[in-house]
Amino acid sequence: MEKLSFYEQAGIVVPGGVLLLGVVLQVSALHSLLAPDGMTVGGLGLFVLVAYAGGHLVAAGGNAIEFVNWQLFGKPVG
Predict the structure, then answer these.
(1) Worst-scoring range by mean pLDDT, 5-9, 10-14, 32-36, 58-62?
(2) Do the domain assignments include residue 78?
(3) What range defines the domain where residue 24 resides?
(4) For 37, which of 5, 18, 21, 24 is 20 to 30 Å away at the CA?
């Protein structure tokens, strides 16, 4: 089994964190649910866990867009 690198994990967590933070800032009910009195260690752990799952959703969406683009226009050369 291949060892996962830091950059592979960060490439999933960072887009998921941006997506999650954007959703939390747009929906005020989620803002009060996530951190009513500030961020705690448990809240940060939960945020990273949900951001990791959200990052996989973002990656799946990007893969779908890439697949459709390649079907329409062909693979890029170079």
Answers:
(1) 32-36
(2) no
(3) 6-73
(4) 18
Question: Dihedral (C-alpha) 35, 38, 44, 60: value to the nearest 10 degrees?
Answer: 40
Q: Is residue 69 part of a domain?
A: yes
Predicted local confidence at residue 16, as pLDDT = 94
Between CA 4 and CA 74 the distance in angstroms is 31
The DSSP code sequence of 46-71 is HHHHHHHHHHHHHHHHHHHHHHHHHH
Domain membership flag for residue 44: yes
Q: What is the pTM of this model?
A: 0.78
The count of structural domains within the chain is: 1
